[in-house]
Design the sequence.
């Protein structure tokens, strides 16, 4: 039986393993295995909501083991250590608990087809002090850390009868930084209803720092301008053309020598693939450790190894690279699925073509801005407000549909509406 391993349970990896399980695993045509070092999956674009407590990851997180059981694939918990392409095995590191006790020994898994979908981590560009003093909002653990520190700072301020401010600096004004900035102001408004009556937006000092000329540099200027305007109205101090050169325990230093004081610092200025991916298995990687792939999403040096999502450097027809977005991971998962089926059946593989459906940025409950592209709009159309918010939420619903199908997703939406009545608006623990 053909052995297919998917390494990484992010948006693309989990969707692909689910599709393969439903088709090949269910009919015993292949043995599908998903490998991830975590026990559960959370859609990465939601992390800024987890960080501020407006989303309870205990409700929205998905257990890999339970999902695997329901969709005819196997789940192995572990961290990838190496790929042996000659023997067609991957090596997983030993797994220990917080006390250093061995839970799972190091082991090897055989594959016929391997799909790498490990996603990305934050890139600090070797800026001094960043790794020691900043929070990287690239995992649920980091989001928990932010929420704990944020709640502690608000408690300290409350104990001083509201004397002073909570200073938060966010480096990087891409989608994560912009959405977090807005979500923080929403959190302050919500906290007032939970016994923090002395809090208001004037007690929150958020600096959003961007090295480039404008925020949301990957999006069209008019969307960037609209988001900038909304953030300024909220009270966010947006600082463009400002490069951070050092992070200390209580401040950031800019290239111009300015000090930006902050009790909490978040680094969201760029991404890279994990460092251990560099030249792994003798495969071709780029300067940020991504696996270089052909248009079929197969790696350049091994047709039995695919790469999708943020981990893949895939070149488009115009010479640019496919951007690291959730919609790209979703599309790549569908293309990789079709190509794996074609490969097993001896058919020609199809090239992956990135279809930009537009970009949306949520400014919490205050606004949503973005552009829609494709067949709906015959070009590009700027949207904001309620319509944009509905489309933004629908992106997550599409991800849920890919994992659970229509009926379960509908039930989840119903449960979500019920929870809005039963559960607090903020997770405070």
Sequence:
């Amino acid at each position: 039986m053909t052995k297919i391993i998917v390494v990484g349970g992010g948006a693309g990896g989990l969707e692909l393993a689910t599709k393969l399980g439903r088709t090949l695993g269910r009919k015993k045509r292949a043995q599908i295995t998903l490998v991830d070092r975590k026990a559960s999956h959370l859609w990465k674009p939601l992390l800024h909501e987890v960080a501020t407590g407006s989303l309870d990851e205990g409700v929205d997180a998905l257990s890999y083991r339970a999902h695997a059981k329901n969709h005819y694939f196997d789940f192995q918990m572990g961290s990838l250590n190496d790929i042996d392409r000659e023997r067609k095995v991957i090596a997983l590191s030993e797994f220990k608990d917080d006390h250093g006790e061995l839970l799972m020994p190091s082991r090897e898994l055989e594959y016929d087809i391997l799909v790498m979908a490990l996603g990305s981590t934050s890139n600090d560009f070797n800026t001094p002090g960043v790794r020691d003093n900043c929070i990287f909002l690239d995992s649920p653990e980091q989001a928990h850390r932010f929420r704990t520190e944020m709640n502690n700072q608000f408690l300290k301020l409350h104990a001083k009868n509201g004397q002073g401010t909570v200073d938060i600096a966010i480096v990087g004004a891409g989608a994560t930084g912009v959405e977090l900035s807005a979500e923080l102001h929403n959190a302050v408004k919500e906290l007032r209803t939970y016994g923090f009556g002395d809090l208001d937006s004037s007690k929150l000092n958020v600096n959003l720092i961007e090295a480039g000329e404008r925020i949301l540099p990957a999006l069209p200027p008019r969307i960037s301008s609209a988001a900038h305007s909304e953030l300024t109205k909220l009270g966010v101090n947006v600082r463009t053309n400002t490069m951070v050169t050092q992070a200390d325990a209580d401040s950031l230093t800019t290239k111009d020598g300015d000090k930006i004081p902050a009790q909490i610092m978040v680094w969201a200025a760029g991404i890279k693939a994990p460092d251990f991916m560099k030249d792994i298995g003798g495969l071709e990687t780029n300067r940020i450790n991504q696996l270089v792939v052909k248009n079929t999403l197969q790696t350049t040096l091994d047709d039995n190894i695919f790469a999708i999502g943020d981990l893949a450097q895939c070149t488009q027809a115009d010479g640019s690279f496919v951007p690291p977005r959730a919609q790209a991971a979703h599309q790549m998962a569908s293309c990789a699925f079709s190509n794996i089926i074609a490969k097993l059946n001896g058919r020609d593989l199809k090239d992956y073509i990135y279809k930009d459906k537009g970009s949306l940025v949520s400014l919490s409950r205050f606004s949503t801005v973005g552009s829609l592209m494709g067949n709906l709009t015959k070009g590009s159309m700027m949207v904001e407000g309620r319509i944009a918010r509905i489309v933004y939420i629908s992106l997550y619903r599409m991800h849920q549909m890919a994992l659970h199908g229509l009926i379960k997703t509908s039930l989840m939406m119903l449960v979500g509406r019920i929870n809005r009545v039963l559960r607090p608006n903020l997770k405070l623990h």
The chain has three domains: 2-120+273-345, 140-267, 358-422. The longest strand covers residues 367-374.
